[in-house]
Amino acid sequence: MPDRSRPISSAARFGLTEPRAEAELRAAGLWDDHGPVPEHELVLTALSRSPDPDLALRGLARVREADPDTWPELRAELGTNRRLRGRLAAVLGGSSTLADLLAARPAEWRRLDGAGTPADRYTAALLTEVGATGDSPQGPVAAKRGPEAVKALKFAYRGLLLELAADDLGHLVEPELPEFTYEEVASRLSDLAEAALRAALAVAWAENGGATAQERARLTVIAMGKCGGHELNYVSDVDVIFTGEDDLGLATRVASAMMRVATEACFDVDANLRPEGRNGALVRTLDGHLAYYKRWARTWEFQALLKARDIAGDAELGRGYTDAVAPLVWTAADRDNFVVDVQAMRRRVEDHVPSELLERELKLGRGGLRDIEFAVQLLQLVHGRTDETLRRAATVDALAALAAGGYVGRTDALELAESYRFLRTLEHRLQLQRLRRTHLFPADDATDDLRWLARATGIGPDGGRSEAQVLLAEFRRRANRIRRLHEKLFYRPLLEAVSRVPTDQLRLTAKAAEARLAALGYSSPQGALQHIQALTSGVSRRAAIQTALLPVLLDLLGATPDPDGGLLAYRKVSEALAATPWYLRVLRDEGAVVERLAVLLGTSKLVPDLVVRAPEVLRLLADPKELTLRDPAEVAASLRNAVRRHGYLGNAVTAARSLRRHELLRVACADLLGFMDVLAVCSALSSVWCAVLEASLAAVDRSEAASAGGHLARIAVIGMGRLGGSELGYGSDADVMFVCEAADGVSDSDALKYAGRVATAVRRLLGSPSQDPPLQVDVDLRPEGRQGPIVRTLESYRAYYRQWSEVWESQALLRARPVAGDDDLGRRFVEMIDPIRYPEGGLADKDVREIRRIKARVDTERLPRGADPTTHTKLGRGGLADVEWTLQLLQLRHGHEHPALRTTSTMDGLAAAVEAGLITAQESAELTQSWLLATRVRNAITLVRGKPSDQLPTQGRELAGVVTALGPDTPGGMSDPGEFLDFYRRTTRRAHAVVEHVFYDD
Q1: What Gene Ontology cellular-component terms does the record carry (predicted)?
Q2: Dihedral, CA atoms, 494, 497, 499, 504, nearest 10 degrees?
Q3: Which helix (H) or strand (E) holds 168?
Q4: Entry pTM
Q5: What is d(CA 866, CA 995) in angstroms, rounded to the nearest whole number?
Q6: How many Cα atoms within 13 Å fall on the side-chain side of residue 218?
Q7: Given CA atoms 722, 726, 731, 732 in this order, what sign does their dihedral have?
Q8: Which domains does the chain have, with CATH numbers?
Q9: 790-812 pLDDT, tens digit each
């Protein structure tokens, strides 16, 4: 009698939701009036853990109905045998087609108990089923043929597939069962396919009279694609190529028969990867294959040959084939447009996917398996020319080798490998469900399908989300990650650059390497070789990455004005950043970075020193927007915040220097690469200087106030000269004046002493020796020049300018503007000087004559000895001083009358002069062009030489460097140094003619 003490429970407790579930359980003897029969409750628990409990129960019922006599035995085994219970429940809930097999052949359930058939016994097992015997080099001959052989092979293959699926899924139901990795399952599927092809070949020989070796031709079967790579799916075409010798007619008949038998019994066999595809001969000789590959093969065919592996037939002929085609595969990247062709092939594959399925296609869609495979294969073919460790057929193995060799970042390789395994596992489960070839992920609203797939993959609910929701989120995350990494690796500009270096030049002897370097433009090939050896010596990952980078870098540096200096700079930077973990990774993964770095190092002596001390800017080279679009206000705020965090004054100023260094390098890089125009460069440099002054003044003021018991004065810094005009260059000093105002209750004398200490400390701290470009704060434009006090009160300035000011001081004040310190005090200073720099009624004739006299004296006395007045950017004819003095004279004479002239900007002032009718548009254009050109050239000289200079070189590498530094839009559109020099002289000569007329004529 049933145990009435047991509570009655519903079958839904075990995930069984069909109305007939309890009836099926009763019929199977697993359920009674009080619920699950105790001794069989573990069977129901196993069913509940299967991917689809209802499907598993229906399958179990079909097995019972197909052979009711053995059901009691099976039921008893299921109650006690954990291995059988877990494997059977997993298969029945994971594959309706394998459930059909068990229903059709009930005794097959016994395969799910015991150790099963090991992979190395697959071939023997299938050959035995078709009665194959013999040890001929061409393989055994089957005793069975025709439909009998097909039937025997079909059921034997399905039986082994059943065992494999049970191993693959069993751990989902019984966690104690071993969990097989994707690699193990794919490898065993490949072994099973290989065994099936060998058995099918044995049948084909039997059907074509191959009873003895004398009656047979030589024939070998080459596996391609996933089977060749030992990474086959549950349901997939098996791609093959046939090679034969002797009687090709017989070999072709046998190959055709083998394909027919294997297709009818096991899986589709596809030979369309052979030369000329479906229109080509099914079987060719080895020489025929080689002749085709050498003359006619397209890029994708070499990509396909990456996975070629002989698996059946004449083993010696198979090895001959793979050995012969390997050199062709590993030099394919030497072909013209190789990388472009592979990239185009991937796009064509993706274009054939219907747009509505693009995000769901596991194999061909965006973020799918092909994204990974194409990226990996392209990297293999380009870098595997010289690195034999990359010559792996399996995708996961190749990824590991690429990571070990430094061609792919470890993290990127790990993410790609994990995502590849994840997608392949999904693919396996989807195909196993009905043993159909599919790669389509369920739609977002297919909740039941998503739930089944999640359970079949071992994904459960998490954090309130259902299995389906967790799976969908994980799938999207993986797809997005794959696509991102695919685009990063597959479209890496470095790949195309590496592929353009011929294979034979990647393996040069020392003597040949010297000749190659000389041809690239290196003046000291032996010195360059020493740098290369220093960078690539050893077996470290760093050396491996450098080995991959240098062939490209050498070519890139060869196109710069100074290849030798660039390579030396690269070595210094690499050695200095050896401990920086991301440095080489950025160069390898961001192709634009290495290309742009080569331009910078081969052109500028200023950039390498800054890179060593501000390496983080290298990351910005990947994205021009990051390099250029930084708000000056944001820069200033960052600098102030960084300085404010330091209590010790020395550390505060060091922080200001550090951020200034970063910004200086960022601007220099953007300038040299042509991403910023000259006005943006000058404005950015000026804003950085202002931010440094602001932050340093605040830090010193705070420190001094702590010592003095409070802030004794308000201080403002007035920018003068190029700083005031926001027109600083790389080597410009900061011309300033300090103005102060006593705090409430403080005497002017105490305020002046306090402000003097602050101003002096700012100048001393910023101007102290350092490895960075100088930070000189120049106060020589103050009243009384070097003899006057560094700081004055506002009223003191007012009194001085009212009584003692000379015309040159009014001229200097034209560019005065507040740049740091107390805003209100700065504003009031500007209001005070406006009548002085824009005098009512203009300048007196004597003042005009005085300015002209001073200008003439500057022209004759200030030009350095030996300087060429036609190419001196500052004091030369038509140079910066010519243009600026001309505008400033107009401002002094007409600024009171025309408010638009009241600007510190040279460009704005020239435009205002045209509007006021003081000069013609043509004259303004001549002056503007010359000023912009001289400013750009002056900046370029500093970048190229690494130190400030106003003299344009007239020959040699420095002149070529200046022309290169001016960027792709070189003024006049000229890249020839001599032609550019003529253009510079012509432009400044025209401007000087305008200056002679406007400045000296009334």
Answers
A1: cytosol
A2: -120
A3: helix 146-173
A4: 0.74
A5: 23
A6: 16
A7: positive
A8: 338-499 (1.20.120.330), 508-603 (no CATH), 613-837 (3.30.460.10), 845-1000 (1.20.120.330)
A9: 999 999 999 999 998 899 999 99
